[in-house]
Design a protein that fits this description.
This protein has five helices and four strands; from the N terminus they run βαβββαααα. The chain is of the alpha+beta class. The chain has one domain (about 10-120): Beta Polymerase, domain 2 (2-Layer Sandwich). The chain is globular and about 40 Å long.
Length: about 120
């Protein structure tokens, strides 16, 4: 996103008919150079694939999943709201100074500020 410091990784959301049915998309993503890295059946049947050499994360959800709408709402709000975009960047920079056991620990630490920002976004 222009104007927001970020890691050099592109995150893509992919909606499929049913993300729990990996057999419908796993082979195609692997053939395109992506590797399944995360399987979270307890969280929206989320799957995350990583591609290389370009650092790309593909987050797979079922069509209509509420997380897709939430992710796009957050992106759109940050694009339209410079103050919240700067707040999010400051938060990410501060959190990046910490040593995290896992990437998920870092992601979890951003949850509070993301929730606060989303609360200001139009419904």
């Amino acid at each position: 996103m222009p104007g927001l410091a970020a890691k050099p990784i592109l995150d893509i959301v992919l909606a499929v008919a049913d993300s729990s049915k990996e057999e419908t998309y796993l082979q195609a993503l692997e053939a395109a150079g992506y590797t399944l890295r995360v399987r979270e059946p307890e969280w929206h049947q989320h799957r995350m694939f990583r591609g290389s050499p370009t650092m790309t994360n593909v987050h797979v959800f079922s069509s209509g999943c509420s997380e897709i709408k939430r992710t796009l709402k957050f992106r759109d709000w940050l694009r339209a709201n410079p103050a919240d975009r700067e707040l999010y960047e400051r938060t990410k920079r501060a959190l990046a100074e910490n040593d995290w056991n896992t990437v998920q620990d870092y992601a979890d630490a951003k949850t509070i500020i993301i929730g606060e920002i989303l609360a200001r976004a139009p419904r």
